[in-house]
Design goal:
Layout: E1 3-6, E2 9-12, H1 23-27, E3 30-38, E4 41-42, H2 45-58, H3 67-80, E5 86-93, E6 113-120, H4 128-132, E7 134-140, H5 155-166, E8 171-176, E9 179-183, E10 187-192, E11 195-198, H6 209-220, E12 224-227, H7 232-236, E13 240-245, E14 249-256, E15 259-260, H8 269-283
Parallel strand pairs: 7-8, 7-14, 11-12
Antiparallel strand pairs: 1-2, 1-6, 3-4, 3-5, 5-6, 8-9, 10-11, 10-13, 13-14, 14-15
The structure holds 4'-deoxy-4'-aminopyridoxal-5'-phosphate.
């Protein structure tokens, strides 16, 4: 049984209970982060802590914990659960006011709820999917307009994954006005020649922590990066494609709808970026 963290205390997972009036449960009024663990250490912890604060600020939600204490809780959960490779899920909601009301409760009387738990994933870094490459389908992006805030409102991304599964694919890329926004739980990229192309940051996409690191490493390795919109048609004619996220790192995409990219196997750029990302971020892990 896992040891989890709830509102200041560590406890067995079956003892952790949250109110039925919690606004995370009633209104998806909460934010989250997922940090990966490799070799028992946290990957990109700082980036996740900074984005968490940004999400909280955007929703005028109080933080129940300092960055230093948050690091300590992450480390303690890794230790208590013996995690070598896996993830730590963190969620903060606007708390449980004791009734249902659209108006935000007073944070003085309704403190936020904070939950963290671990997910053990041995073999996360050596995933066979990275050798084979993924198939994605394209679906319309019908999410709200503040996708830069990492909220727990994940119903449409969850439906997108189900549409992909039904179509025999691994994931879905979302399309708005003909342009790819992002994957259901990852950022999307195409490669043309030596150029890595990905949508620029705005309210339309989540500002991926893995994205920031991968683009930095790409530039340091003298690869060309172009941050601009690309259409799904351009993607289908690209030399390569890939996704990034904290739990998949860099993952090649070899098929988009019916279009097979290149030879239908991972190309040159995505596997190289995966290698660099893993190597550099393990070196910098805390
Ligand atoms: N876009 C969306 C919609 C996501 O849900 C995620 C992962 N949570 C990402 C991008 C990738 O972000 P990160 O690299 O910080 O995991």
């Amino acid at each position: 049984m896992r040891t989890v963290y709830l509102n200041g205390d560590y406890m067995p997972e079956n003892e952790a209970q949250v109110s039925i009036f919690d606004r995370g449960f009633l209104m998806a009024d909460g934010v989250y982060e997922v940090t990966s663990v490799l070799g028992g250490k946290l990957i990109d912890f700082d980036g996740h802590a900074v984005r968490l604060q940004r999400s909280l600020d955007a929703l005028e939600m109080q933080s129940p914990i300092s960055k230093e204490d948050l690091l300590e809780v992450h480390r303690e959960l890794v230790r208590a659960n013996g995690i070598d490779e896996g993830m730590i899920y963190l969620q903060i909601t606007r708390g449980a006011p004791g009734d249902r009301d659209f108006v935000f409760p007073d944070p003085e009387t309704t403190p936020p709820t904070i939950v963290l738990f671990t997910q053990n994933k041995p073999g996360l870094a050596n995933s066979p999917a990275a050798q084979k490459g993924m198939k994605v389908i394209s679906i319309e992006d019908i999410r709200w307009g503040r996708r830069d805030i990492k909220t727990v409102q994940l119903l449409y991304p969850s439906m997108g994954k189900m549409m992909a599964k039904k179509a025999g694919a691994d994931d879905a890329w979302m399309i708005e006005d003909g342009y790819v926004t992002e994957g259901t739980s990852n950022n999307a990229y195409i490669v043309r020649g030596n150029k890595i192309i990905t949508r620029a940051l705005s309210n339309d996409i989540l500002h991926g922590i893995t994205r920031a690191a991968v683009l930095r490493f790409a530039q340091e390795a003298q690869m060309e990066v172009e941050e601009r919109n690309f259409t799904i048609d351009e993607a289908k004619e690209a030399d390569e494609a890939f996704i990034t996220s904290a739990s998949t790192f860099v993952m090649p995409v070899v098929q988009i709808d019916d279009a097979v990219l290149g030879a239908g196997v991972p190309g040159r750029v995505a596997p190289r970026l995966r290698e660099i990302y893993l190597e550099e971020s393990i070196k910098a892990a805390v």
